[in-house]
Hints:
4-stranded antiparallel beta sheet
Amino acid sequence: ELEITFKKTPATLRLLIFDSSGQIEVNRNYKEYITKTLRIDDLQNKEQGIYFITLITSEKTYTRKVIKLNN
């Protein structure tokens, strides 16, 4: 599980998760996002590998690489 905390609560939020080949694994829109913390558990059942998480807010777009390791 990943937890992301925003400095300022975004008015809108879109979450995209891509695998290493560029395929979209998750595409979720939050029309009325009202908290500063986002918990992402979408990778729990995914294979080990590299994923890219993109968050699009009304103000900015953020992309980060995540390495998923299976226990």
